[in-house]
Structure formats: structure tokens, C-alpha cells
From TrEMBL:
Originating organism: Sphagnurus paluster
Pfam family, one: AMP-binding
Name of the molecule in the record: AMP-dependent synthetase/ligase domain-containing protein
Domain named AMP-dependent synthetase/ligase: residues: 42-207
Gene3D superfamilies xref list: 3.40.50.980
GO MF annotation, one: phosphopantetheine binding
Presence of keyword Acetylation: no
One Gene Ontology cellular component: cytoplasm
Keywords: Multifunctional enzyme
Organism phylogeny: Eukaryota, Fungi, Dikarya, Basidiomycota, Agaricomycotina
PROSITE patterns: AMP_BINDING (PS00455)
Amino acid sequence: MAPKVFNQDVLQHLANADRQLFTHFGLGEAVEQPFECVHHAFEHHAHQHPYTFAVEDFEHKISYIELNRQANCLATHLRSKGIGPGSRVCLLVERSVFMVVGILGVLKAGAAYVPLDGNVVADKTLNHALKDSGSSLVLVLRKFVHRIGETPIMCLEDTICESPYSTHCRKPEDWATCNDSAYIIYTSGTTGVPKGVDVMHKNVTNREFLYSPVLELDA
């Protein structure tokens, strides 16, 4: 028996040819995802290519193995602060190696990140996003610390462990599931109050798997 088409009542208002096209393209083969969570895909790639450079900015570049180690270290530190599944952590950053370490550290801790560009976001939008998302902590670059009010902060430059001999960089126990939030993205708010969109891990991994042949990503 064919699966039910979502919102059949809406389809009844379409022309018969359009309804058939919608049904045909909407009932593709179900394919099992190779990774349940976003950071699982990263960890797999880091294991496959440990010494390949993963991220580079104007000042730093970092290999997959070192990026994974630093993210584990940050995740462990976040867990010690009570951050885990259900938590939301704001990232007030700019495009950089620190940003990527922050994203992966939050995901490995089991929490969701709320990304905001410290060079662009207005104070009004920043304050709204912090309150609306319920962020319990802000991971922030040193240059943006002055923009945070009462929300607890953690300065990325001071927190990320760069020593390869650190004993605190073991991967924390993985508590995240595919149905957990990966990140909350906010609209610009130019037409009103910025709105947050909650994106789950399975939404991201499904899209990654869909486009992996185009992007030449290996599973």
C-alpha cells in the first residue's frame, strides 16, 4: 500500500496532472541515513582524514584530528557547566577556526547552538535572540565580550585548549539523538521581530546525505 501523502486536502485543489506530479516526486525511496547526528559525520571524516587541514582562516589553520580534539575539550568543559541535551548556547563570533570549534563543541556536548555574527547583529536582535532562545551561555570571541549583558559567557580564546598534551580532551559521553536540536537560526527581523527556526540533527544529516554526490562528500 502506498504511503499517505501529507495534507491530502490541499492536493485536491490541484489539477490532476499537478497532483500526480506532486505525488510522484513526494514518494521517493526511503534511505537510511549513515549518520544520526551532525557531529557523527564530522567524527567519521576526522577519523578518515586526521591530518588533512579541515579549516583555515586569515590567522590559523587546523587539521581534522586537532579540530576534533579541541572540540572534545570544549564539549567536556561545557558539560562541566551543566550544558547538555535541551540546552542552547549562543555563539557570538565571526567566521574563524574558533567558530567551528565552538559549533562542534556545543554539538558534542549535546546542546544546540544559536549562531550570531558579532560584526553584524544589532544589539536589539542580539538581546532578543538570547532571551527568545533561552540560551544559558554565550560562547564569545574576546572582541565581542563587551556586547553581552547578564547572560553567562565563556570566551573561546581563553577556553579552547591548544595543548596536544592536555588530559581533559576525551570525548564526553554522546547523549544527542537525531531528534534533538542542532541549531536555532534567526531571521534578520527587518520586517518585524526576528523569528527563530529550530533545526534538528536529522534535518541537517538528511540534506547532507542528499547532496553528498554533488559536493563529493564521502560517507
